[in-house]
User: Fold these one by one.
Assistant:
Number 1:
Amino acid sequence: MTALIDRVWKRHRRAEPSWASDDVAATWQLVSLLLDYPTDDLVCRAAELASVAAALPPALGGGLTAYLSEVEATDLGVLQRDYVDTFDVTRKCALHLTYATCGDTRRRGVALVQFKQAFRASGVELDDADAELPDYLPIVLEFAALTDREAGWKLLTDHRVSIELLHRALAKRKSRWLPVVESLRATLPVLDGTDEEALARLIAAGPPSEEVGIDGALDPYVAVPQSGSADAFHPGPQSLGSTIPVGAPR
């Protein structure tokens, strides 16, 4: 089943966004902010962010504007508790792109290394103090919006199944974050019948359940790059995380 999922979803990387490049980048950056843990800073910036969302095509900005209206009208403590219950407690709403397809298996360790290699190939070093894995959706979206749209597009479309599963889980919960993910989906290729078949198989099977952890050999933060690999290319590293706070306080 894994081979089928990979074959079906990775063909999307050959597609191109159907919206203007700047609109897609603005949408990705806004979604990265709005899917992160809500803070006082988000509340203070809600009106400013809403004005950016309002300037986007309705299919991209409408859901973002709707969520920002909720931010302004809802107590921050309520938002924070809802966020933790939705994304930190509910496995089906995980914001880590490799979890749905790899679960807690050795294969996920390899997938995480591939994310970090993609970032490094574009000159990006994750800040280990952020305490988030490299497949965390807000990090991937910030990278795609601000650093390398082509590499970011590949990561998003390669893991489109995870985004689709997240959307369906949020829809089932009638979550306040559903419109945010719908805005993200609007930037990605439209699904067809084959996609739906692959998705149905994954939903039926669920994430792989082999619980082996990630040992040092597979840890994306200590993996040693091989000669000639993308990880060996290190042009002027920069740090992600200065634009958005990453992850909920633990």
Number 2:
Amino acid sequence: MTDSSKTLDVKRFIDAQRFSPYQWLILVVCFLTIAIDTYDAFAVGFVVPVLIQEWHLDKAVFGPVMSASIFGMAIGALLAGPLFDRTTPKTVMVASMVMFGLCSLGSTFAGTPLSLGIWRFLTGIGIGAAVPGATTLVYEYAPARRSGLLVNTMACGGMLGAAACGMTAGMLIPAYGWKSLFMVGAVIPIMLAAVVHFTMPEPLRFMVMRQWPADRIAAVLRRIAPAHDFEGVRFAFSEEQAKSAGTGMAVMLTKPLCTGTLALWVTYFAGTFAYYLLMGWMPTLIQESGATLRQATLATSLLALGGIIGAFCVGWLMDRFERNSVVALAFAVGGVSVWLIGQQAHNPVWLTASIIVAGMGLNGAMFSMGALAAAFYPTHGRSSGIAWMYGIGRIGGILGPITGGILLRTNGAEAFFAVVATTILIPTLALWAKRWAQSGVREQQTLQDDVKAG
């Protein structure tokens, strides 16, 4: 029989340690993974203007091409859930990175919009499957006191990837042609996949839950705390929901988690819908209000800048206050600010302030959804739960720009921003419902524990 004094709770152990160089390495590698994911997702947008001229086609032909990668990301995230249950999060992460790297290479052989669209769809599947694994890995190795901030920091890699894609396109396409942008998007993820394979661990609680050999778990922990003695230690983790049966969808739709799961899906769907709707049409609307193209582009960039600030602020607050309430409040701030954008179109000072605050609220909340989902699901459903949330949300990203075109044909700019603002407020209600459901589950669990104790 194992001595109980030699049992070590891996989560509590991580929480008690200083943030080690190895944990920094995990954060940096996952940050770069998100960055190259976003690079590959955005690359087609910089290539299309060149292809319109080279292939002598109308720009409308490329609409489905640009939507193909978003659709692929939705499918990839949904497929990743069952794969996490059958393999391991790191395996799915590595395989998906190799996949979207090879498919980015395949994009260089496209000669028609149809073939390019197929390659971008396949690239999107790889991108969609990689993100949940990276989110899970960072969350599992983050101390509880910093988990929200660290997961949000990782998510900011998307902004780096988008900026890097734009700068790379500006340097490479004029000199080497459009294929060079896809070549970079092919080489880097495959190289990074090798780094993940050889240097990154599996999620710690996942290894304990699957009853991996103690020496393999100890080897990972020694990289975090080299001075600690793990000889003869039995590894475990305390998690209220660890006792529940099943994996993946079976976990997500259990009675204690069902309401929260639906709330996360509604929240991410509505948030992604609003984000793509806003990012897709705001430059056009601001330009139509009298601004120059440069001013409209700068205004849209301020939305992204506000998102980076918001990600750090919301992440910091999530580690100190009730997570659902913090993210719900961020969505509410974003919704009100988007409505103000529609009211302040001719007032540059207030328009700029409204755009920055809207970015802080909407983008900051969206960046925080990975951390919120990771904290909600137990270990054996975490990767699948995150993947399904991302997958459902991507569908909103597909519908957003389409809805924007319909709105602008039938209504004015003020009505457009009012609809976007209302959509952003839906997550606020959904997350409050999630908080209420979680409170009810905790009260029921406490009552059951009291009955057992009595």
